[in-house]
């Protein structure tokens, strides 16, 4: 398990799973739980269904490797109700995790402290314009100061930072997007007690991770 104040991050293609290390435990489709199988059936496109199943099977393998539990024995719940942050039940070691997938790319993070991760495909200009009004005023100012051609990439980097942080908090998008500043400048103005930054992703995508800094003293 990563030491306090650190996390492990994997970003991989949902089909090839390139970049995922060998683990002691293997996990086939039968390792998925009833809720995962139910959610997988909701996807209309087979590619989306395969992406979801691949992401959750790899998550089970990684959690099994870190906890010593068999992948099929892992049970999940949610903090604070049905829409709360996913958590692992009955783990013999402290573990927090986060998972995200978008258009064939998957990101998974494990940590001893609350962690969030997000990966997104870079959107079009129209999508950026529709989302601008919901952002923090300082974030809007930063994006609108850029040439229109540069906004999609900058927006994708910002959006993944924001979603990673909200996932780490456990609120997701239920928290107003304007409530927190996750812009590219003025790092001192970002949420206290958290480190949030972008990480490398394949071309056409952006990714970010957020980790709550453990209390000292």
TrEMBL record:
Homology family: Belongs to the P-Pant transferase superfamily. Gsp/Sfp/HetI/AcpT family.
Protein's name in the database: 4'-phosphopantetheinyl transferase superfamily protein
Molecular-function annotations in GO: transferase activity
Protein's UniProt keywords contain Transferase: yes
Entry keyword set: Transferase
Domain 4'-phosphopantetheinyl transferase: from-to ranges: 114-176
Protein's UniProt keywords contain Transferase: yes
